[in-house]
UniProtKB/TrEMBL annotation, chain A:
<comment type="similarity">
    <text>Belongs to the Tom40 family.</text>
</comment>
<dbReference type="InterPro" id="IPR027246">
    <property type="entry name" value="Porin_Euk/Tom40"/>
</dbReference>
<dbReference type="GO" id="GO:0008320">
    <property type="term" value="F:protein transmembrane transporter activity"/>
</dbReference>
<keyword id="KW-0812">Transmembrane</keyword>
<dbReference type="GO" id="GO:0030150">
    <property type="term" value="P:protein import into mitochondrial matrix"/>
</dbReference>
<keyword id="KW-1000">Mitochondrion outer membrane</keyword>
<dbReference type="InterPro" id="IPR023614">
    <property type="entry name" value="Porin_dom_sf"/>
</dbReference>
<dbReference type="InterPro" id="IPR037930">
    <property type="entry name" value="Tom40"/>
</dbReference>
<protein>
    <submittedName>
        <fullName>Translocase of outer mitochondrial membrane 40 homolog, like</fullName>
    </submittedName>
</protein>
UniProtKB/TrEMBL annotation, chain B:
<keyword id="KW-1133">Transmembrane helix</keyword>
<protein>
    <submittedName>
        <fullName>Translocase of outer mitochondrial membrane 6 homolog (yeast)</fullName>
    </submittedName>
</protein>
<dbReference type="GO" id="GO:0005742">
    <property type="term" value="C:mitochondrial outer membrane translocase complex"/>
</dbReference>
<dbReference type="Pfam" id="PF15184">
    <property type="entry name" value="TOM6p"/>
</dbReference>
<feature type="transmembrane region" description="Helical">
    <location>
        <begin position="35"/>
        <end position="53"/>
    </location>
</feature>
<dbReference type="InterPro" id="IPR029182">
    <property type="entry name" value="TOMM6"/>
</dbReference>
<keyword id="KW-0812">Transmembrane</keyword>
<keyword id="KW-0472">Membrane</keyword>
Length: 342, 64
């Protein structure tokens, strides 16, 4: 429904464990996502005219890709096999990580990753440029460069190779206005062949709670071209976020509810007109910071039940993740175990 | 006596309705059925999230 990677159906990038705490002075982007932008803080103690203007000031609605993110973060991530990750901060700007993955279903692999964070500060705990890359034992590379060009414009370049062959290369620019966000992404452009994908997003705050927007995907190959459009609406309440994305390919609705500091609940509904299939998922997140414990559980309409348990073994710089998924209809069981050091 | 006979005549109609409703709700090959049933499950999930998730895990346990 959305981004470039989905439209061009490449091999998905490997999941990045998020159990490690960043080294001091380092900002590690969550997986391969954009670092968060600090919100605009309205001025206080102004005269009545300026106070009126401050009251009617619409907030920036955030990035288009982050509309469903809050709800997706509640659900457990499926993991299989054993994973050992060692993170080591070499300086305030540079960090390396080693990941060993042992699997019964896929090939076991080793990945070496690096993260570089520059010294251009744009906000609290936000430093640019950010360069993240990792390579596995077969020579496949994933790399991202994120840079804040100005106070409102952020750019990102991403590359993905399978051994020596480039399978994905894309660049995007995001402009954050006072009450809107606009993004343009160029995916796999090939001037010689005349192929590529252009994705444009626009999200506008209508009221302090309601944001509406749209996405346009244009793809072109020799002898073929097409465009897909979808619309999105996001409503933010005091402790909930409801988002709906609708397009010719289908619909995606999500509801995120923060019941209290320990419990968050998410409900997702997806319908694909192309695949002629629908599904609904219910997930919850239990966060017990006093026990350094986080538990995620989910159940969906395809009779798949999953759970994730993450425990930080303080005072050691150690984090343990246990994961299991059970597909009752197909009688399949999958479990995973991960240790993160550093 | 028309009362019991009318009841007997309407109960096969009700039974037929239940049978067709059961067949509709369990027919996984019907996209429209999947859409409606999952939409109902989504609405039920949202209701559960809004109304049944307000328990406090850190509250002190009651003393017996």
């Amino acid at each position: 429904m959305g981004g470039v990677l989905a439209a061009s159906s490449p091999n998905p990038p490997p999941p990045v464990t998020s159990g490690a705490a960043p080294a001091p002075g380092l900002t590690v982007p969550p997986g391969f996502g954009m670092p968060p932008v600090s919100p605009v803080i309205p001025s206080t103690g102004a005269d009545p005219g300026q106070q009126q203007e401050a009251r009617t000031h619409l907030p920036n609605p955030g990035a288009f890709d982050e509309c469903h993110r809050k709800c997706k973060e509640v659900f457990p991530i499926q993991m299989e096999g054993v994973r050992l990750t060692v993170n080591k901060g070499l300086s305030n700007h540079f960090q390396v990580n080693h990941t060993l993955m042992l699997s019964t279903m896929d090939d076991s692999s080793y990945r070496f990753g690096t993260t570089y964070v520059g010294s251009k500060q744009m906000g609290p705990a936000e430093f640019f440029p950010v360069m993240v890359g990792d390579m596995d034992n077969s020579g496949s590379l994933n790399a991202q460069i994120i840079h804040q060009i100005s106070s409102r414009i952020r750019s990102k370049f991403a590359f993905q190779t399978q051994q020596q062959k480039f399978v994905n290369w894309q660049g995007d620019a995001e402009f954050r206005g006072e009450d809107f966000t606009a993004t343009v992404t160029f995916g796999n452009p090939d001037v010689l062949v005349g192929s590529g994908i252009i994705v444009s997003h626009y999200l506008q705050s209508i009221t302090p709670s309601l944001a509406l927007g749209g996405e346009l995907v244009y793809h072109r190959r020799p002898g073929e071209e097409g465009a897909v459009m979808s619309l999105v609406g996001k409503y933010t309440g005091s402790n909930y976020i409801a988002t709906l994305t609708m397009g010719s390919a289908g619909a995606h609705a999500s509801y995120y509810h923060k019941a209290n500091d320990q419990l968050q609940v998410g409900v997702e509904y997806e319908a694909s007109a192309r695949m002629q299939d629908t599904s609904v998922s219910f997930g919850y997140l239990l966060d017990v910071p006093k026990a350094n414990l986080q538990f995620k559980g989910s159940i969906d309409s395809n009779w798949v039940v999953g759970a994730n348990l993450e425990k930080k073994l303080l005072p050691l710089p150690l984090s343990l993740v246990l994961c299991s998924f059970l597909n009752h209809r197909k009688n399949k069981f999958q479990c995973g175990f991960s240790v993160t050091i550093g | 006596m028309t009362g019991p006979e009318s009841k007997k005549a309407s109960s096969p109609g009700v039974m037929n309705w239940f049978r067709s409703a059961y067949r509709f709700s369990t027919d996984r090959n019907d996209f429209r059925r999947n859409l409606l049933v999952n939409l109902g499950l989504f609405v039920a999930g949202v209701w559960v999230a809004r109304n049944l998730s307000d328990f406090d895990l850190m509250s002190p346990q009651p003393v017996a």
